[in-house]
Design a protein that fits this description.
Lipocalin; two-stranded antiparallel ribbon; 2 helices
């Protein structure tokens, strides 16, 4: 399909910016916020055309999986474990999703997975390097 980036692969957390300000802004409980700080999350993306399975593996064995098709409403789960419905769109090679209280984009840039979440002007950026 036109404009589809190759997202498929496994990516390991490398660094982030503005984490504390962002989790405060979205009201993430402090225990969850602590867990996620500098967390070596491994993100695994399986892509089949416009169908994606996006799994985050947390240290300690917890995983979160969101499956979606670009342009169709899907059941999703937030960082904090809340369930909601969202339609993921593809804009300029980026995946864009509106979560309940933030907007999330993901793109492959320089071989890395770059995810940006924006909530009321606070921009949280997470970079992960490809490991598989």
């Amino acid at each position: 399909p036109e404009g589809t980036m190759a997202f498929a692969g496994k990516y390991e957390f490398e660094g982030d910016e503005n984490y504390d300000a962002f989790v405060q802004k979205i009201g993430l409980p402090s225990d969850k916020a602590e867990m996620g700080r500098n967390c070596k999350i491994v993100t695994e993306v399986v892509q089949n055309g416009n169908d994606f399975t996006w799994t985050q593996h947390f240290p300690g064995g917890r995983t979160t999986t969101n499956s979606f098709t670009v342009g169709k409403e899907a059941d999703m789960e937030t960082m904090g474990g809340k369930k909601f419905k969202a339609t993921v769109k593809m804009e300029d090679g980026k995946l864009v999703a509106d979560f309940p209280n933030y907007r999330h984009t993901a793109e492959i840039s320089g071989g890395k997975l770059v995810e940006i979440s924006t909530s009321s002007g606070v921009v949280y950026k997470r970079t992960s390097k490809k490991i598989a």
